[in-house]
Amino acid sequence: MRLYVDKQIYVDLYGVIGVDPDVDKSGYCRLGGDMKIEETGCFDMYDICLKIRTEQANAKALDKTLVVIVEAGWQNQTNFHVGGRDNAWKAAKIGNHVGANHEVGRQIIKFCKRIGVDVMEYIPKRHKMNAQDFKEISGTNLRTNQEVRDAYRAALALIS
Q: For residues 59 and 106, what is the distance between their CA atoms, to the nearest angstrom?
């Protein structure tokens, strides 16, 4: 697949990796050059980085381009995840978890830049994708969790 980038440059696309960063297990979705799902799962940051490095090597061997897209929720105007009845301790705990997840995303982006992989930050603006939406859009019957669906949505940001 040829992809039009920056209104000037054409690249032969090897594939797209979408990542929904999380401290424990990040959502991962790899699309091939035809934008069909090739691999999904939840992995820790170390395994995600290994997968990115492996796919980069595969892309370079074919003289094609790999693009990684990381969900960058920290760039939203508000990250207020506290309910009206939550106390200060709960609010602090939620804020700590959200900040840790954001840092994982920043580290994956930093890793991609360091090894020379094209990386983009995806700012989520729409509602979460449910299982039915995922099946309709992807054309598959894969069982997925929310992290994988968010990673898929990030990967699709390249073409939408």
A: 23
Q: How far is CA 141 from CA 15, 32, 35, 127, 137, in A?
A: 21, 18, 16, 21, 11
C-alpha pair distances (Å), 146 with each of 39, 85, 151: 15, 25, 9
Residues spanned by the domain of 134: 2-156
Strand partners, 121: 70
Distance CA 122, CA 70 (A): 6
Helix axes 146-156, 131-138, angle to 10 degrees: 40
d(CA 153, CA 29): 9
CATH number at residue 10: 3.30.420
pLDDT in tens, the chain (160 residues): 555 555 445 468 899 999 999 888 999 999 998 889 999 999 999 999 999 999 999 999 999 999 999 998 767 666 555 566 666 656 655 555 566 667 888 999 999 999 999 999 988 877 788 899 999 999 999 999 999 999 999 998 887 6
How many structural domains comprise the chain? Answer: 1
- pTM here is 0.83
